Amino acid sequence: MISANNKVPIQKCIISFSHNRYPTRKEADIFSISKAEREISSGKKGVSHLILRADNDDIDRLKFLFLIQGIPIMCYALGNLLNSSLREIVVVGSKEVKKVMDCFLEVVGTCGKSIRFAEEDPQNLSLVHTINLGRALISPSHDEMTLFQPGDLPFLYDLEKVLHSPENKHHNLVLWLNSRQKMFSDFEKTPETEFVKRNYHYRSLDDQADSLQDLKEPNLYPLNFSMMDSDIIDSLHSSRKDGQIIHAGIQTALKKPLRLLKTLPHIMNHLLTFRRNINRIRPGDRYQFGMSRNNFHKGISQLLGTPLTTTFHNDPAFVSDVDALEDWEDFESLTHFAEKMHDQQGLKNIHPFGEALIRFRDEGMPELKKEIPMFQDFPAYLNSIYETLKMGYQPFDKKGHYVSPNADSKEVALAYRWYKQKCEGLSAHGQAST
Q1: Tens digit of each residue's pLDDT (9 = 90 or more) over 233-285
Q2: Per-position DSSP letters for 191-234, written without gaps between them
């Protein structure tokens, strides 16, 4: 198996503001509604009316362009990178993404970063192609980790722990897994403290501590491109939703029969012991994939032919992506709550790049509203989507005021306090930048 001896910290990043399209709007809406109805009928906490693109849309329903407090999601995500110790950033996206990016950087500057753009290929929107578009511009060396990140994580601004992680040195892929117990330690006693609602399909047992963790798939990938096949990242990311990652593992194993033989001892250990150990701790637990953490590291590293590890973090921002209308609403409610508490400067109190984001909203967005169809009347656009996807209510009134019934929930207040404390902590310790 290939060993790893990588440079630390990570200095290069590919951020994707691209996403696949359905052939028609009708097909996309049927899929979104059906998924949400299944989640509702099964009593899941994380109900998601997915935001999906379609080839025949008059307005490209690209989630990265959705506005949170009048600012595109992609600007929050790009601002997180600008506010980090990264040196080189490649942005992959549509022509509209390029327009927004150029305007954003003109207003807020590049913070000393090298920033390049690769236009998505409408005829090939696969993740592998997206990664390769970015990789061609970033040219990583053989001993260099790169951060690959989808651009729908608007409040993932504490990136230094990822970029400087000691695990980057001796592993070619680090999976930052979302642990429910670490992010929301009191959720069983006080359910409202779990202010991000998600479905956790995976289980893990720590061989040392004998602790059971409910896990959700990663949303960002520190990886060494020269030691990893891009199709493996495609399989990991594309099949990660709804517990389908096991199928990606099977497909990879069938392509690598010799490596599969080396993993058989780990597979047998898993089959003989894991479910028994789970039932001892939590009888009758239902899950779609489980792992003994140490066994998983060894088995998957053998299968991939390169060292892999996992990190369980305690940061809800890592799981807070914007895949669905419910996710968008979480952030719209959060930022409105912050403005209630601090007037028009509320965003500065919960996001370390908030001042620059507000400046861009004031100086850059008026012109972009003339050029980007989605921005021209965003409240009416969102209301129409809510109606089409059978949400049962609309988030804006006729005057464009945010009036969601979920805006004043306990979860919103808790999220505000958490992000405010996080932001204050980063300011006190000094957020790395240029």
Answers
A1: 666 655 555 545 555 555 666 666 676 677 778 778 887 888 998 999 999 99
A2: GGG--S-----EEEE-TTT--EEEEE--S-EEE-GGGS-HHHHH
